[in-house]
Amino acid sequence: xxxxxxxxxxxxxxxxxxxxxxxxxxxxxxxxxxxxxxxxxxxxxxxxxxxxxxxxxxxxxxxxxxxxxxxxxxxxxxxxxxxxxxxxxxxxxxxxxxxxxxxxxxxxxxxxxxxxxxxxxxxxxxxxxxxxxxxxxxxxxxxxxxxxxxxxxxxxxxxxxxxxxxxxxxxxxxxxxxxxxxxxxxxxxxxxxxxxxxxxxxxxxxxxxxxxxxxxxxxxxxxxxxxxxxxxxxxxxxxxxxxxxxxxxxxxxxxxxxxxxxxxxxxxxxxxxxxxxxxxxxxxxxxxxxxxxxxxxxxxxxxxxxxxxxxxxxxxxxxxxxxxxxxxxxxxxxxxxxxxxxxxxxxxxxxxxxxxxxxxxxxxxxxxxxxxxxxxxxxxxxxxxxxxxxxxxxxxxxxxxxxxxxxxxxxxxxxxxxxxx
Length: 421
Ligand SMILES: O=C(O)CCC(=O)C(=O)O
Ligand SMILES: [Fe+2]
What we know:
- The structure is a single chain.
- Helix 3 (93-109) crosses helix 6.
- The chain is globular.
- The longest helix is centred in the middle third of the chain and has 26 residues, at 196-221.
- It is built from nine helices and 17 strands.
- The chain has helices spanning 14-31, 42-48, 93-109, 122-137, 141-146, 196-221, 245-249, 323-328, 382-392, and strands at residues 84-86, 112-116, 157-159, 165-167, 170-171, 174-180, 260-266, 276-281, 287-291, 298-301, 307-309, 317-321, 338-341, 352-359, 399-400, 407-412, 415-420.
- It is an alpha+beta fold.
- The protein is 27% helix and 19% strand.
């Protein structure tokens, strides 16, 4: 540790000198913190950022290899009949109250819905898919290793293939790259750096336009004040804190918000052991925004106990809610079980590229129903839930349910979590 720079303010009055030294030592401490843990926080980074040497430069103008999406399947699968929410109608109060009812109905019937007119053009969306593809195809193994998430409790950076158990003796073929919604919070592989501003805009658009509108519609659908859920999903936790003594000195180290853009690539399976690529599950977080892509395989488990397929709609979003919305809404919005199986024959040999925005509440949000007036002491905090669920996922810790066939389960923080085969 080189102390000469942090302690270079020796000509200032002692009290000021102490402050400068304190801040600089803090800044050194924070800049060296392991970025995978929940101890590295936006507030301090923002506050001290002028004092921290940038770890990489932004640049732009690099060419982006174009990803050409494959055609949709020609096979006649059994498709789920999902509602289409036209987000452009949310611009007026009348439009919003009509859409809120549509969202409630869609959530109660299928649990998934499409969103169109979300504000991104086909060209903008295609560029994001090109960036996603490049993240897997144009980064070498050494760099991938360097940017692989260090903790199983946090989805950050790459998640390599073969880290989850699908069934006995079968692991996953899925590679991730997770980007915190605060895109500049961490360093990224060199191929991605010229495109960080574009990813940043994408994260902000997903958050401030799409997620926020959906959360408002869901609150309105429950006759709650429009911003009830939005307030729990602040883009920048620290930016909204009041700056009181406690928050200033303590809470920033405890708070974060693990909303992330996720790029995902499924590689074709070479073993015939199972056609399941991602086991039936409900999502850990609150809202999942899936940018529709043409390779089939995503299925939802419907009320008549039939798995039905999600059809691709060009430049639409496929939206669903997860465990967190169930908790916050007191069961009003229940998550729908879904899985990914091997794509149909005409697509089975293709790689399946996905782009997502996974929203979670901020770590300091208690996962209790907003309808309960009494404080629910046993409800977990978002941060605990996120860490426990993420850490246990795919480890094979689930056990067969004694009540339901083909279901495995375990109890996490007092909540029964299930997976479906
Ligand atoms: O790849 C997909 O289509 C869905 C993935 C998914 O359900 C998930 O990552 O939670
Ligand atoms: Fe999912």
